[in-house]
Amino acid sequence: MWAIKYAFLGAIQGLTEFLPVSSSAHLVIFQDILGVRQNQLLLDIILHLGTLLALIVFLFKDIRSLLKGKIPLYILSATLLTALIVILGQDFFEGMFASAKKIILPLALTGIILLATKRFNKGSRKIGKLRISDALWVGIVQGFSVIPGLSRSGITISTLLFRNVDGESAFKFSLLVSIPAILGAAIFKIGDFPNVSCIEYKYMIVGFFISFLSGLLALRVLLAVMRKARLHLFGYYCLALALILWRQLR
Q: Buried (b) or exposed (e) across 163-179, using 16+ Cβ within 10 A?
């Protein structure tokens, strides 16, 4: 029974990690529904590692061509800024995982941001034309996306679209910046691993592989969405989910 629960959470993580609907928000909701309340943040990280593997596989053929010029420097700059924000706000961010009620406002904000991209879906700057200011803005919003309900992919891609970056380039840079962020989160929480029971660890591994497979599917879907300039459609979903939660939990 528990293996099925963790596999289900892995599928939720994989499908929502890259689609701009906040995987953390969905994990908080379904962890609460399924009664999975122990080691929630650690489980969230392990499932993120599954989607990280999916990301590396998805970008494997292109990653060498993408990491040219100043792009590695921009990724480093964004990562350092993200890390600073997360470290300074660690206690606040971890407290946001405690209740589904706390994700309503961030989820609604994600929806509004996504809807706003409808007016900014014709950017002309390619990934090779990114500036350090683009990377710094991405680093800032990525740091705050630790808050469940704020979609990391949604707000980082939207930020780049607002700065006249074309959809596919925004998609790819957002993915590249997420790699060190996810790895850093896993290293930061490595001390929690000894507190996990052997059987729970096995369940988490099941979730890891399911999140990997569903993550590959989500990446293909999001790339197609970006090419068709339809990112804003996910905003309606986020607002609808926020409204449902508000009505159920008020």
A: bebbbebbbbbbbbbbb
- Would you call 149 helix, strand, or coil by DSSP? coil
pLDDT band, residue 96 (cuts 50/70/90): low
Total count of domains within the chain? 1
**Total-model pTM:** 0.87
Owning domain of residue 64: 2-249
Report residue 10 as tokens.
């892995």
Question: Which of 131, 134, 130, 138 is CA-nearest to residue 82?
Answer: 138
Helices (H), the chain: 2-18, 23-34, 40-59, 63-66, 71-88, 90-95, 104-116, 132-144, 152-162, 167-188, 198-227, 233-249
| 42 CB-near residues (< 8 Å, 6+ apart) | 189, 192, 193, 196, 204
Question: Do 174 and 160 form a contact (C-beta atoms < 8 A)?
Answer: yes
What letter would DSSP give residue 61? T
